[in-house]
Amino acid sequence: MTEYTNIEFKGEYIKAESRARKSLEWARRFWSEVVKACEKNNCYKVLGVSESLVVMPFLDGLDHADLFNELGIDRKYRIAWVELNEEATDTVAFVDDFLYNRGLPGRLFQNEEEAKTWLLEEDGF
């Protein structure tokens, strides 16, 4: 399968799509581009739709808290994430919980419709 990344401003949110072999280095590049798009468009709501071709190593997932802090991804962001590869959902769910417990943004959803609905709600987390 072909790898790709597409990050696009959709008016009310940034849509960040990817299909890739996941790693911490991949995440650093991906989230750096997301941050640039958010700052450029003054929009901090992110809908992520991902298909992991290779599941990110579990320990790399733990480094996301440091990565988010390094990139300035904080509570002003609202991140709704969908993982299309069922084999990757356990790792992604763990990272989601890990980030949430450290006060960082993001929720994992089963599908894009649920994710977008939550993302655009006015309520907080």
Give an account of the 3D structure.
- Helix content is 42%, strand content 26%.
- The mean pLDDT is 88.
- It has five helices and five strands.
- The protein starts with a strand and ends in a 5-residue tail after the last helix.
- It has a single domain, classed as Transcription Regulator spoIIAA (2-Layer Sandwich), CATH 3.30.750.
- It has 125 residues and is α/β, with parallel strands linked by helices.
Write the layout of secondary structure elements.
Elements: E1 4-9, E2 14-21, H1 24-41, E3 45-54, H2 58-62, H3 64-71, E4 78-83, H4 89-100, E5 107-109, H5 112-120
Helix pairs in contact: 1-3
Fraction of helical residues = 40-55%
Low-confidence stretches: none
Q: What form results from the Cα inertia axes?
A: globular
Structural class determined from secondary elements: alpha/beta
Under CATH at level 1, the class stands as Alpha Beta
Can you tell me the CATH superfamily? Answer: STAS domain
Order of helices and strands: EEHEHHEHEH
CATH architecture annotation name: 2-Layer Sandwich
Please state the CA-atom Rg, rounded to the nearest Å.
13 Å
By DSSP, the count of extended strands is 5
Beta-strand share of residues = 25-35%
Number of domains: 1
Strand order of the largest sheet: 1-2-3-4-5
Q: Give a quick account of the main beta sheet: strands, pairing sense, barrel closure.
A: 5 strands, mixed
- How confident overall, as mean pLDDT? 88
